[in-house]
Every structure is written in C-alpha cells, then in structure tokens.
C-alpha cells in the first residue's frame, strides 16, 4: 500500500515540480507555486534548503538542465525565464525574446532517422477511439536572424553549464536585463533538449520558442500556428534526439519538427483540454492526459506484413503439434 512519507507545506497553489534526472550530489525537488519564490525541497532531510527570489509573479514551470545538476530553469507568470545556479545566490541569466540569432540545425541522428519519425507520425493509433490528422507541410519561408551573438554587457561572461566564469553579473545590477521577458504572458512550459544545448518554452501568448542556452538567444524558429492554454502549466514531450516535439494544444496534441517549426500532424482523441504528454522512448509510445480524466496511449500500428508472419508462425506451430501427437 502506498503511503505518504514526506509532506512539504507550500505558501500557495502548486503549479509544478521538477527533479533532476542526472543529479548525484543532491536529492532536490524544485517547486513553483502562486508565490513568487522558487523553493527547493530536500527529500533526504525533509526540509527546504533553498529559496530562489527573482520572479515578480507566480512560478508556473520548472526544468533542470540536462547537462548540469546544479542549473535550474524557471518560467514565471511574469513572462520571464530565469537561470539559477543553486550553489550561488541570485539568478545569473534572464532570457530576452528581443535577443535573437539564427539557431543551428543539427541533422537527424543515426539512432532515430527521419524515416522513423515519419512512420510514427503517419501510423500512430491510440488505445481509445482516437484519430490522427495529417497536416500538410507549409511553404512559409523561415525568418533569418542576424547570425550574431549579442552580449547584454561587456563585463559579463555567462556560463550556463555551471563552470567558472570571468565575472558573473547579477541581473539586479542591470534593471533593464532583470525586467526582460521571454513571452508576452505566463511561461507555461519548459523542455530542455537531451544534449543540454537548447531550451523549448511555451507561453500563454500561444507561442513556442527555441532558445540557444549557451548564448541565451531566441533562435527564431517559426513554429506554425497553435492555441495554448493561458491559465495552466502544460507538459511538453520530445524524442530522445529532440528532433520531434509534442505540444498540448487545447483538446489535441500537435507534433512539430523542432528545428524547422513545421507542424507534422495533430493527435485528436481527447474531449477536453490536454494538460500533459510524455514520450516513452523504449516502447515508442506517447502518453497524453486531459481534463476529461482519460490517459490515452499512442503507438505506431503493427504493419500488416508482421501480423501475417506471426499468424503463419502460429499456424506452423499448430501443424507441428498435430503431426507429433497424431495416431
């Protein structure tokens, strides 16, 4: 029987929690609530160990870095995305949507070729009575950035990986940088790529943005039109190589190519708002949860050839048994 073994009293409604998947030196759970402060709960001691102050409104989304166990990224209802090194006081980076550069477009990895992604999109079925709608590829031209990495100040040399820096400038020393926003409205979701190089964010402004973590710049990927929830955090999901991202969009889930922003398709099956999704790499399945109290499982359908081969094998087995046990 499952029992509660630890209880942390929060100052307001809890919007989200996050725990590092690579941490070995700590057992911290980052929590965001209606309160402006981010609290870190230590499940080893049962106490709060850190309080991170900087947001001017509630904290709706949290994500740990996938390359450093000390780096935490938070998104607030104030539209800001802040980077924290929990070993030091204050945040060391605030993303600004006006700072942009043309993002890199890495090729598909050998482990997950483009054909696999297309097959998953084209043949996905759910365990419920659901359908998948293929979306035609848009012919929109991608916006081109200036290709330059801008620095907000000549005295700053940020290092998101948590390594040593020549001189780290606290945003409190630069009021304009401290007030920067990543979205017009609340930041409702965050998802870091598996290599720790990029961060995907969603906002109540119905925008999806891809950030270069090293430079802190918006990569200007133009994600095709979507509608996102405005008052609740959503959970994004991505393939292991981060080439495909799944985004809850009202009562459906949209699949996008992360590097081009192309909408590859829409998963329809829920009857109410979808709040979260998770991709299971091992079983190649997508799980989605909605306000309709249903959890749908989406998986590629088994090819007809495979089914026929399995039926033939079963038939051969039965024939062998009959021969062995015949009079």
Known CATH architecture of the domain at 1-102 and 179-228: 7 Propeller
CATH overall fold name of the domain at 1-102 and 179-228? Methylamine Dehydrogenase, Chain H
Low-confidence stretches: 107-114, 125-169, 322-327
**What is the distance, rounded to the nearest whole angstrom, between the alpha carbons of the first and last residues?**
54 Å
Mean pLDDT reading: 79
InterPro entries: Rad28/ERCC8/Ckn1/ATCSA-1, WD40/YVTN_repeat-like_dom_sf, WD40_PAC1, WD40_repeat_CS, WD40_repeat_dom_sf, WD40_rpt
Biased composition (Polar residues): 149-178
Keywords: DNA damage, DNA repair, Repeat, WD repeat
Protein name: DNA excision repair protein ERCC-8-like isoform X10
Defining key terms:
Methylamine Dehydrogenase, Chain H; WD40_repeat_dom_sf; 327 residues; DNA excision repair protein ERCC-8-like isoform X10; globular; 3 helices; WD40_rpt; five-stranded antiparallel β-sheet; WD repeat; repeat; mainly beta; four-stranded antiparallel β-sheet; single chain
């Amino acid at each position: 029987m499952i029992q509660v073994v630890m209880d942390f009293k929060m100052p307001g409604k809890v919007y989200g929690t996050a725990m590092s998947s690579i941490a070995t030196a700590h057992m911290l759970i980052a929590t965001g609530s209606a309160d402006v402060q981010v609290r870190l709960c230590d499940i080893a001691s049962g106490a709060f160990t850190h309080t991170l102050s900087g947001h001017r409104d509630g904290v709706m989304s949290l994500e740990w870095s996938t390359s450093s166990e000390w780096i935490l990224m938070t998104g607030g209802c104030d539209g800001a995305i802040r980077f924290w090194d929990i070993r030091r006081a204050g945040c060391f980076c605030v993303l600004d949507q006006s700072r942009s550069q043309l993002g890199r477009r890495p090729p598909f990895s050998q482990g997950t070729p483009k054909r696999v992604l297309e097959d998953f999109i084209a043949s996905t079925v759910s365990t419920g009575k659901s359908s998948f709608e293929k979306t035609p590829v848009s012919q929109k031209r991608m916006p081109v950035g200036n290709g330059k990495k801008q620095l907000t100040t000549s005295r700053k040399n940020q290092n998101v990986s948590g390594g040593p820096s020549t001189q780290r400038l606290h945003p409190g020393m630069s009021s304009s940088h401290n007030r920067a926003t990543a979205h017009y409205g609340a930041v409702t979701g965050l998802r870091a790529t598996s290599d720790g190089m990029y961060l995907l964010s969603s906002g109540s402004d119905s925008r999806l943005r891809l950030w270069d973590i090293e430079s802190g710049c918006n990569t200007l990927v133009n994600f095709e039109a979507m509608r996102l929830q405005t008052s609740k955090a959503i959970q994004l999901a991505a393939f292991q190589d981060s080439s495909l991202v799944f985004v809850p969009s009202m009562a459906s889930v949209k699949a996008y190519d992360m590097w081009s922003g192309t909408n590859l398709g829409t998963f329809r099956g829920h009857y109410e708002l979808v709040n979260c999704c998770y991709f299971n790499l091992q079983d190649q399945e997508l799980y989605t949860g909605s306000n309709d109290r249903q959890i749908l499982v989406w998986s590629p359908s088994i090819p007809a050839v495979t089914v026929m081969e399995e039926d033939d094998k079963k038939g051969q087995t039965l024939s062998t048994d009959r021969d062995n046990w015949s009079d």
